[in-house]
Here is the input.
Amino acid sequence: MPKKQLSVGVPATLNLKAELERARQECKADSSNSKSKPKSSPYTCMGGQNMGVQSRAQKDKQALDSERLSRAFTDARARQILEEKAHLYDLLSTADSDASAIRESRLDEHRIAKILEESPVDFVSKQIEHLRRRSEHRKGDRDAASSSLGQTSHSDSASMVEVVDEFGRSRMVPRSEACKYRQRPGSAAVSSDTSSNSDSDASSGSERIPDRSSRGIGYYSLSLAPERRKEQISTLQQLHNNTVQVREETAISSINKQRQLLDQRRAQLRSSHERFVSSSAGAAHAP
Here is the structure.
């Protein structure tokens, strides 16, 4: 049976062409939009990055830098405090330090008072101990010098002889070393009790009068007579002891003066520290 042909009019043909053209335009627009959009890569858990990681890393870096600066400042401050304490301890631990040396230091009164209050060291006792040790050391040196002088004065005359050296000084040396000294004209190089010159000098009691301008100020012309010579040595020893005693008394008076100045300085520091503490407490309780 033959198919029935449908009659298509002009309006239907125009409508169909319009629909085809509209579909063609939409297809072109969709294809252009798909090309302009970037292709998004698929998300992977290993290659991704959480939100806020960079900001947190920046904050951590700033905190680390501030901690390092704070630690460096703390170390510098602690070192400064230790240096101040060491400087003050050096000034107060010796007996030669006085108030002027403490005053000339780079520390202020409040800082010195605070260090002294916090310190467990008794500097006054340390200074007294230092003075006692120094006095004992000087006394030992003086006793050693006195014993050496006594041994020299009481030495055996048979083994020691008197000679005159090249400077014109009279000295007592062993007999074995007497030949080393040059004999001066007009005086015997070696004298003993058996020589005729010594006997005549001892009997007459004559003494040699040296030229002090050429032999020096420390030259003493001792008599050849044993009794007179012993008396002269005793006088010299007494003068030496008197000189040492005067020096010790002068040193002790100076030490006592330094101790008084140190006590006054400590009292001033304590009073200034108390005033500072009271003023700070009053300012804290003030409305």
Q: What stands out?
A: Residues 69-156+228-277 form one domain. Residues 184-210 have pLDDT under 50 and may be disordered. Strands lie at 160-164, 170-174. The first strand starts at residue 160 and ends at 164.
